[in-house]
Amino acid sequence: MLKLLGQARLPLVLGHGFGTDQSVWKHLIPYLIDDYRVVLYDNMGSGSTNPDSFDFERYAYDLFAILEDLQIDSCIYLGHSLSSMTGVVASIFRPHLFSKLILLSASPRFINSDEYYGGFEKEDID
What is the tens place of the pLDDT at every residue in 72-103? Predict the structure, then answer.
């Protein structure tokens, strides 16, 4: 589900973290809508979307499709957790679409291994 809030011209796209949906931003929205055109969306597999549709490899492409559909040629992107990395990956492939990245609780890797603690066991993600 895609939502646009606020009448300002400057787009601010909010990407939620793994295991959540766009509702995590509900307390922040009132502080943003006077200054930004806020774009809310659910990643595939989250919120009202089919959970079987989760596929991180398509997250950046879904973000590109949203920006294209809304005719946004540059935005501020605020991503939480997994969506932080979506913003990073998307900005590498199409840097002109992002004037700023704001990354909350970003991690380059979420799965634990012998040498790294990411917070999740592989079985948790599966």
Answer: 999 999 999 989 999 999 999 999 999 999 99
Q: Give me the residue spans of the domains in the chain.
A: 3-125
pTM of the entire predicted model? 0.85
For 3-125, which CATH superfamily applies? Alpha/Beta hydrolase fold, catalytic domain (3.40.50.1820)
Contact 67, 75 (CB under 8 A): yes
Instruction: In whole angstroms, give the CA distance from residue 45 to residue 13.
Output: 18
Give CA angle at 29 (19, 74), nearest 5°. Answer: 85
From residue 106, alpha-carbon distances to 16, 30, 37, 49, 87 in Å are 11, 24, 24, 23, 10
E strands present in 27-105: 37-40, 75-80, 98-104
